[in-house]
Design a protein that fits this description.
Shape: globular
CATH architecture: 3-Layer(aba) Sandwich
Largest sheet: 8 strands, mixed
Number of strands: 11
CATH superfamily: Alpha/Beta hydrolase fold, catalytic domain
Distance between the termini: 25 Å
Number of helices: 8
């Protein structure tokens, strides 16, 4: 069903799977997972379903996580992960130069897919599944030249961050927030990560360091949304328990998207559609395939 592939990004080899059909030019969906998760933690089920519907898929682990290389291990940096999307697209455009490319992200990566879509040329569509858009609107410059500053940071900026912008190392999830606080606090997060990350071969580890560099423009989809002129599907979890998936901010981002757009609400909070198999998963992937079919096939 897929070939194992790798490509370079930020001095590391990012590794994953290329699901490709044997003949013809197929739209390709670039997919990666959210905070600390790996490609075997439900996102591979989305990839397989999208591939079975007739689309090619490039699915990879972020730098520092899972199969991919990079140091320090388990470090999240939004700019670095957004550059990973850029380098995945560049890899595909050498390998299959005529295939249109869509971006797909889940949770933290869904917000980054909305950022990357505004910074990478000629992205054909975006699916942002339960996107992290922030607790509140971003501080600092968001309009009037913000995109140009953002592009310069994206291409050439020092995004290493310092100690004052670093949180951790700490557990990703914990069942005891009083004695062992974690990055993700809801008990639903603990249940999902322990179930999926605890499976043999997942390569998931329950610790993380998060770096949010202090840049003149935040790595935020609120900034890039007015420049997203490709079709965008934003899929949110009804009554999402994750504070960084504030529905008010998600809607503010969606309202700023310039192109054709679709807003979808799925039951089950943040993690409902990440349980396979479930009614929420089935509804989510059905809506996503229908969106891709409309965009690329006109039906």
């Amino acid at each position: 069903m897929y070939n194992e592939v790798s490509f370079n990004s930020e001095g590391a080899e990012l590794r994953g799977r290329h699901y490709s059909h044997p003949a013809g030019q197929k739209p390709t969906v670039v997919m990666t997972h959210g905070t600390t998760a790996t490609i075997t933690m439900a996102v591979d089920q989305y990839a397989e379903a999208i591939f079975a519907a007739g689309f090619d898929v490039l699915l990879y682990d972020h730098k520092n996580f899972g199969l991919s290389g990079g140091e320090p291990r388990q470090e999240i940096n939004p700019w670095v992960q957004t550059r990973g999307y850029r380098d995945a697209v560049a890899f595909l455009r050498v390998k299959q130069p005529y295939n249109p490319i869509a971006l797909w992200g889940d949770s933290f990566s869904a917000g980054l897919a909305l950022v990357a879509g505004g910074l990478i040329e000629d992205i054909a569509a975006i699916i942002a599944q339960i996107p992290v858009c922030g607790v509140a609107l971003p501080q600092g410059l968001t309009d009037d030249g913000a995109l140009e500053v953002m592009k310069e940071i994206f291409e050439n900026g020092d995004v290493s961050g310092g100690a004052e912008q670093t949180m951790g190392p700490m557990p990703v999830v914990s069942s005891d927030q009083l004695n062992t606080p974690s990055l993700l606090t809801p008990i639903q997060a603990f249940r999902w990560f322990i179930e999926h990350g605890g499976r043999h071969g997942s390569r998931w580890e329950n610790w993380v360091t998060r770096v949010i560099p202090d840049t003149p423009v935040a790595c935020s989809p609120y900034v890039t949304a007015p420049y997203l002129r490709m079709p965008v599907q934003m899929m949110v979890g009804r009554n999402d328990e994750m504070v960084h998936c504030n529905l008010e901010i998600q809607r503010a981002v969606f309202d700023r998207v310039a192109g054709e757009k679709e807003f979808v609400e799925i039951d089950g909070g943040h993690f409902g559609l990440l349980w396979h198999s479930s009614g929420e998963f089935d509804e989510a992937v059905h809506r996503q395939i229908a969106f891709l079919s409309r965009v690329f096939r006109g039906n």
